[in-house]
Write a structure and sequence with these properties.
67% helix, mainly alpha, 0% strand
Amino acid sequence: MTPTTRGHHADSRANREGFSAHTVRLAWILGLAYLLIVVYASVQPFHGWRMPPPEIARFLGAPWPRYITSEDIFVNLAAYAPLGFLLSIGCGARYGAGRGVLAATFYAAGLSLAMETVQVFLPTRIASNVDLLTNTVGALIGAMAAPLFAPTHILGGKLHAVRHRLFHEGMAADVGLVIVCLWPMTQFHPTAQLFGTGAVRAGFDLPAYSTYTPALALWGEAAVTFFNLLGVGLMVSALMRGAEHRILLIGLVTGAALVLKAISTAALHKAGAPLSWLTPGVTIGLLGGWALLYGATRLPRTGQFALAALCIALATVAINLAPDNPYHSVSARLIAAGQSHFLNFSGIVRALSELWPLLALSFLLYRLAERTARD
């Protein structure tokens, strides 16, 4: 069978399952990217490796923990559901929907088993058979949901119709939309700074570059919020077909991020102040970003891509140069390793938050190079 023939067969399988060939390719790419994020999160911290006891797989037969909360179970389900979803799209195009679900679940379970085994070598991490089970079930849930989003299904058909009506066509545009949709999810990262993606200083034990003062902290928070809001807003605008609903869509994406931040704060800190992150600096950044967005979205698409890349880069620099705020604290449940299965989910969200600017900048620079070569 020639490569061309194999390509035609792959396209026909994809069409039979309802997803286009480029959607299937995108699912494989995103599945690999999410897999790398899971690995990145599972092996943190990156130091302190040790030789484990001889019974390396002893955690598989360990007694069931005495205390397991519904929150612990939910977050582990959520951690592997996206992986199961993406793998199911790819495997479904190759094997059919039913066998694709099984294959995706099997692959995700294998990854979870490998990660739990690796954690035996890390003294600050605890390998858990509960994590393995809940991760596998989460992958199964995600895999079973994937066929519902095919264009041939009612739900998937409506979503695809909205997508094609509002946004530009092509795989590159799909990648951009996925990156935009990941941005609100980064707000689950247990950091007190709103929109504080790309903060890698703590992960690599880098020292603070400046000493805390109220004024420096205020303007640091304002800069991070302002540049991120402007960058993401321009990215959304550049992906859209027309200008009619741009501000509305940018508002929906930003609103989703703010809501998820409030939910994360309320859930993690167990406090009656879900808006404690809404500091004066953050407020200045939000107001300033929105003040400039309306005019900035009227720039040509190439200008929007360029300015979005610059803003996201500046926001990343600002979050890493800003001083540590002693008045912000992270829940002890996320610091004491082994105290909660939430650590696994928070590790994935933290990895996503740290890597998101790299994903966004890679996409924006690619689109800039593509449009420059075309012109």
